[in-house]
Fold this sequence. Notes:
Blueprint: H1 7-20, H2 27-39, H3 41-47, H4 51-64, H5 71-77, H6 85-97, H7 103-109, H8 114-136, H9 139-149, H10 155-168, H11 173-185, H12 191-203, H13 205-211, H14 215-228, H15 235-239, H16 243-270, H17 273-283, H18 289-301, H19 305-321, H20 325-337, H21 339-345, H22 349-362, H23 368-376, H24 383-396, H25 400-405, H26 412-431, H27 436-446, H28 453-466, H29 470-480, H30 486-498, H31 500-506, H32 510-524, H33 529-538, H34 540-544
Helix pairs in contact: 4-6, 5-6, 8-9, 8-10, 10-11, 10-12, 16-17, 16-18, 18-19, 18-20, 20-23, 20-24, 22-24, 23-24, 26-27, 26-28, 28-29, 28-30
Amino acid sequence: MAMDRHDKEKEMASVLLSSLYADVISPPQIRDGFVMLLESADDLAVDILDAVDILALFVSRAVVDEILPPAFITRAKKTLPESSKGYQVLQTAEKSYLSAPHHAELLERRWGGSTHVTVEEMKKKIADLLREYVESGDTFEACRCIRELGVSFFHHEVVKRALVLAMEIQTAEPFMLKLLKEAAEEGLISSSQMVKGFARLAESLDDLALDIPSAKTLFQSIVPKAISQGWLDASFMKSSCTDGEAQNEDKKLDQYKKEIVTIIHEYFLSDDIPELIRSLEDLGLPEYNPIFLKKLITLAMDRKNREKEMASVLLSALHIEIFSTEDIANGFVMLLESAEDTALDILDASNELALFLARAVIDDVLVPLNLEEITSKLPPNCSGSETVRMARSLITARHAGERLLRCWGGGTGWAVEDAKDKIMKLLEEYESGGVVAEACQCIRDLGMPFFNHEVVKKALVMAMEKKNDRMLDLLQVCFNEGLITINQMTKGFTRVKDGLDDLALDFPNAKDKFSFYTEYAQKKGWLLPSFGSSATEALPTAAAS
Length: 545
């Protein structure tokens, strides 16, 4: 529309694009928009006189305004036929405008843009105040000068110039990072302007590296500092990926999704949790754990109660073995964010999601506080927030535990409670003179390897209660045969350690006994190395004795 109007509108269009860049329109979208223009240049030339020249000016101006990288022209040329008007546009931009002496100043004044004369003056003021700050080190004064400029929409230029200065002058880096940190903490530079400044610099790193060879390395060292100190939004890391990296990441994610669908379907057929865990570990992508949870529950919701029950039981096993609480909470956030879309395909999706959430709390996969954290990550008044409220109601209802364990019509979830009774009985039989091989077979017959930590816990508590260390012999055989894994053994010891204060009310020497069991287990190699330090910290008196 601007191409078909006067110079005033063309100038306004260029200024508007600069203002929208990064905050509203992402860099890839800007590039895609210009590519669409170049591809339709032949049609535009039919209706607009000098379309090639005008479009060349818009492209050149975008490069000067740093909303298109200089490399855009070379890349775009490769996608267009040499006979096309779009190719001519790029040739004109490159040879007639961007290669001319003082081309930046000429392009900014080409459409009589008084607006951009002010922008150039502003850039100079920003450069001057930053250089003065490097000499004086007075952060308060520098912030005051930035505030006095009165151009909050242009603070991304302050960010970009400060970062470039930090790279140019090694001694300036700590000053610049301190200034940006304080400006962010005061609310002087907004989060979006900070991200926009970093994004603009990331776009021009290739050109900057011609003058500062270490520019990329320096930039990559500054970004994590800024994020860890809280003045650059962590989302920048994702948005700063190059196109190639982003495409590779997308391919990797697509491949992962295909793999996990196969793994989940195989699990629904085999009910083999250890095999599923091995398959996930072989993929070696723990950062995608929340995506696995989302896919698992989405697939389960579209199947029968048996698969829903299996999904809940699997979550308990994954939480013990390889998933963190944060992974599971983030997976539920992803599910709840897409709840409205899911509801289009799955009848009663909201109620079923609430049951999955409530069941996760009953199974100790999540704690009630996690539900508040999940809600805080969701938009207010969305259907996902309502689902979390339903889950809370289910948890606080009478006999919630029993009802939720049977929410999918019984099955494995209720079998967990049943398994506790069976474990207690088999250990009592073994303690009163039973045979090790028989006890091992009973554990094997339970068919719940993900729940063997309960065997470890109950065996240790019984050893304390009966003052009989025969249980250690059983655990040794179970470990030697691979019946109880090192993860399950460590989980069992951890559960006893967490409940020591309560146990000490019934068994006064519980801490001393547990210290002895821990030392024995470590000598036999039953426990993960990470358990040692945490156990010692938790047992000062036992360790001393």
